[in-house]
Amino acid sequence: MATVDEDLGQIERDIRQLKIEYDQYFGGGRKRPPSEIEWRIDQIMKRYAERGGELKFAQRFRFNNLSQTYAKYKDIFRKKLQQKEEGKVQRHFGAAAKAIEAERAQKQEAEAAAAGAAFRITCSEPEREKDKVDQLYQAFLEAKQKAGENTGKLTQSSFNEFVRKKTKDLRKQKNCTEVEYVVEVVDGQVKLKALVKS
């Protein structure tokens, strides 16, 4: 009898294999969709959905992530099968898979931020690093919203101005080239710290 972690590892491998075989099927390299792998994943998924209470926190978290990934893939496969049956041209599946991966990475970053892990970014010339300042603003705004703090007075332009001025002042005072900004939650309150980088 496989352990929970072995089963979860098997699901992960099967989902990867399923995606590869569906890619081949939609690309014309396979005659039939890979229904036997799908059936196997469904069986294990069903078993753990019923036994969710027995899983440790980390296992449940991993199982939920796998379930979401699998559900998204299944939805994409279903739509593509429909298009194939209707004879429509579909866009390359790789792009959709990349979108899912990007979404998962974003979700993990958001979960890490929610768990109190800090968001860090380094600036030397904020006026030229608009993307970085935008990311910092988004992380700060989201952290405040998650913590239930009022964000009514927070605007992108005032934030940009603050970062520009703070970076300039610190570089001048401390004679440094870069400033690291950190968004973190301390005792339930969101803090934005500016640290000097030599």
Present the secondary structure layout.
Layout: H1 4-26, H2 35-50, H3 57-86, H4 93-114, E1 119-123, H5 130-146, H6 156-174, E2 178-186, E3 189-197
Antiparallel strand pairs: 1-2, 2-3
Helix pairs in contact: 1-2, 1-3, 3-4
What can you see in these coordinates?
The chain has 198 residues and is mainly alpha-helical. It has 2 domains: 4-114; 119-197, no CATH class. It has 6 helices and 3 strands, in the order H-H-H-H-E-H-H-E-E. A 3-stranded antiparallel sheet has the order 1-2-3. Helix 1 (4-26) packs antiparallel against helix 2, helix 1 (4-26) runs parallel beside helix 3 and helix 3 (57-86) runs antiparallel to helix 4. The longest helix has 30 residues, at 57-86. It is elongated. The termini are far apart.
Summarize the structure.
The chain is mainly alpha-helical.
Radius of gyration: 23 Å
Q: Poorly predicted ranges (pLDDT <50, ≥5 residues)?
A: none
Q: Tell me the count of domains.
A: 2
Strand content: 5-15%
Task: Fill in the keyword field for this structure.
about 200 residues, mainly alpha, about 65% helix, elongated
